[in-house]
Automatic annotation (TrEMBL):
Matches recorded under PANTHER family: ALPHA-1,6-MANNOSYL-GLYCOPROTEIN 2-BETA-N-ACETYLGLUCOSAMINYLTRANSFERASE, BETA-1,2-N-ACETYLGLUCOSAMINYLTRANSFERASE II
Name of the protein in question: Alpha-1,6-mannosyl-glycoprotein 2-beta-N-acetylglucosaminyltransferase
Annotated organism of origin: Gossypium anomalum
Catalysed conversion reaction: an N(4)-{beta-D-GlcNAc-(1->2)-alpha-D-Man-(1->3)-[alpha-D-Man-(1->6)]-beta-D-Man-(1->4)-beta-D-GlcNAc-(1->4)-beta-D-GlcNAc}-L-asparaginyl-[protein] + UDP-N-acetyl-alpha-D-glucosamine = N(4)-{beta-D-GlcNAc-(1->2)-alpha-D-Man-(1->3)-[beta-D-GlcNAc-(1->2)-alpha-D-Man-(1->6)]-beta-D-Man-(1->4)-beta-D-GlcNAc-(1->4)-beta-D-GlcNAc}-L-asparaginyl-[protein] + UDP + H(+)
Cofactor(s) needed: Mn(2+)
UniProt binding sites for Mn(2+): 242, 350
Annotated transmembrane regions: 21-42
Membrane topology label: Single-pass type II membrane protein
InterPro entries for the chain: GlcNAc_II, Nucleotide-diphossugar_trans
One GO term describing the cellular component: Golgi membrane
Length: 439
């Protein structure tokens, strides 16, 4: 042994040095493991701001190549980062590790009205059963204040997706504003500008067309693009940032979905609210079958397939509103009345006094007194739909129907082609839709 030929003092020093080195190595290993675990945790449970998004060059190249193959607009770095962010897993899985077997996924689509979003998020936090499901928040572009509100959600699993082709993401090129775009009622031949006008002679407004683009991109992405939902065959509930959701909404939509095959087998969907947003329900002891509403509507993949097959009708109808487009051209093309099933008392309410993308950055601009005072009675806190009720059918309801020509705002060939491209994003290039041309 070394200690036989060395003094006892030197041997002791060697032992101390050896022990110190072992302790140092242990500290280094533990520290490295801790850093790695922290990185994994952050990537799994948080949605970073734009400046923190991963910038792996190989993945960016893959995304750019994918968009070019589909003839989508050339993405800028911002758009590519958002597309990558959409692949992140849901947050709060540590708090809610399993979704209920019969859960109905909720999709909340938002623009840039943070005052509104705060109201709907607060109302969702009080919904009975909300912790059992997945909440997907679809953003029309990226706005930091909106992002922070969603990052604060802790009452269920939540996944954020950002429309990477939103006009708000392209400040100087299509789908945003290009320097050589025609404006208002410009004559393209005389002005030597780019764009085709709508039926009223008006050229596109990126702020307005983004409404329809976002809804269509979101539908295609949720049903066919996200790994969390592309295999989901049940119903998905869709709500917007200006919908106040009552505590009984989730339990009621579950009941409506389960009763629909028995009570209204011809109904395409279930709704939380009347199609007339100014009504609160009849208060009868009866279920209601009426035309599809745009507040709290839920349908399944079979219905989505029917909608998707009407992509050309949706994308070529000259109206910037997705819902009016559906009422006036898509639903009528199904060949039979499109009914939805709802209860006699609303479980969701449209609120606020701003439309489109108004109100952002203005104190108390969209909500009276900066808040919404919605009356919630005891009957609104528990499921209030009964399986023994019959169904009252509303025939010949007023509203947009086949033959309505549209409000315009959707006449530019570029918007129509982008819309068609969204319908192809997650499908084979050999589908019949890929053969659709602009002629």
């Amino acid at each position: 042994m070394l200690c036989i030929v060395s003094s006892m003092a030197n041997c002791k020093k060697l032992r101390l040095k050896d022990a110190a080195l072992k302790r140092l190595l242990s500290v280094v290993v533990v520290t490295l493991l801790g850093v790695l675990l922290l990185i994994v945790s952050l990537r799994t449970n948080t949605t970073p701001g734009l400046s923190e998004l991963d910038e792996d060059l190989s993945e960016i190249a893959d995304i750019q190549s994918f968009s070019e193959q589909l003839n989508l607009p050339k993405q800028n770095e911002f758009s590519i980062r958002l597309a990558k962010q959409n692949q992140m897993p849901p947050r709060n899985r540590d708090l809610y590790p399993k979704l209920a077997k019969d859960h109905i996924t909720i999709v909340l689509y938002v623009h840039n009205r943070p005052q509104y979003l705060q109201v709907v998020v607060k109302s969702l936090s009080k919904v009975v059963g909300i912790s059992e499901t997945l909440l997907i928040v679809s953003h029309d572009g990226y706005f930091e204040e909106m992002n922070k509100i969603v990052e604060g959600i802790k009452f269920c699993q939540v996944k954020q997706i950002f429309a990477p082709y939103s006009p708000h993401v392209f400040p100087d090129s299509f789908p945003g504003v290009s320097s050589n775009d025609c404006k208002e009622k410009d004559d393209a031949g005389k002005k030597h500008c780019v764009g085709s006008p709508d039926q009223y002679g008006n050229h596109r407004s990126p702020r307005i067309v983004s409404l329809k683009h976002h809804w269509w991109w979101m539908m295609n992405t949720v049903w066919d693009g996200l790994k969390e939902t592309r295999g989901h065959n049940g119903h998905i509930l869709f709500i917007e940032e200006d919908h106040f959701i009552y505590p009984n909404a989730y339990r009621n939509i579950q009941l409506l979905v389960s009763l629909k095959p028995l009570k209204c087998p011809d109904c395409y969907a279930a709704n939380l609210a009347p199609c007339d947003v100014n009504l609160r329900g009849e208060g009868w002891d009866s279920l209601i079958a009426e035309r599809m509403g745009n507040v709290g509507y839920a349908f399944n993949r079979t219905v989505w397939r029917k909608i998707h097959r009407k992509a050309k009708e949706f994308c070529f109808f000259d109206d910037y509103n997705w819902d009016i487009t559906m009422w006036a051209t898509v639903y009528p093309s199904f060949g039979s009345p499109v009914y939805t099933l709802r209860g006699p008392r609303t479980s969701a309410v449209h609120f606020g006094k701003c439309g489109l993308h108004q109100g952002q950055g203005q104190t108390n601009a969209c909500i009276d007194n900066g808040s919404v005072n919605m009356q919630v009675d005891d009957i609104d806190k528990v499921a209030n739909i009964r399986s023994e009720w019959g169904v009252h059918v509303y025939d010949n309801q007023p509203g947009y129907k086949a033959g309505f020509k549209g409000w315009g705002g959707w006449g530019d060939d570029r918007d129509r082609q982008l819309c068609l491209n969204f319908a192809q994003m997650y499908h084979s290039y050999n589908t019949s839709l890929s053969a659709v041309t602009m002629s």
